[in-house]
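2024-03-11 09:14:02 DEBUG pipeline.ingest accepted 1 chain
2024-03-11 09:14:02 DEBUG pipeline.ingest length=149
2024-03-11 09:14:03 DEBUG pipeline.predict start
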Amino acid sequence: MTQTDDRSPEGPSRRTVLASAGLGAVGAVGAASLAGCGSAQQAASDAAGSATNAVKDAISKATVPVGGGKIFADQKVVVTQPTSGDFKAFSAVCTHQACIVADVSDGTINCACHGSKFDITTGAVKNGPASSPLPEKKVTISGDGISVT
């Protein structure tokens, strides 16, 4: 009796069973690996988001001087207080060549890379070579804290 497929009269051949089992095991390991990877990536993302939110919520109004500002380089944000109680926030990334701005003084946010200066009230360019203003961020004040989004 010659057979052209992998089944004997009693059921599937040993080769078919082993091949199927091997593919099933590979699929299960692959799915477990992907699930583990996704969980780790999600956990890392959640942790980074929580850390960023904690720092944003930790900005105290008292740390931002009136007529000046404070740079939060890790969050790429600069918070200013042009007049007492009036808080503004801008991207700390210079629009000229993406350097992080260096300091806030004399009513301007200053980039040390090429000398660009931006207005602490509007983010507008006061001195080039930058030609675009710093993008404004939303400021929320809650009690003694400042949150920037």
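2024-03-11 09:14:41 DEBUG pipeline.report The first strand starts at residue 7 and ends at 8.
2024-03-11 09:14:41 DEBUG pipeline.predict end
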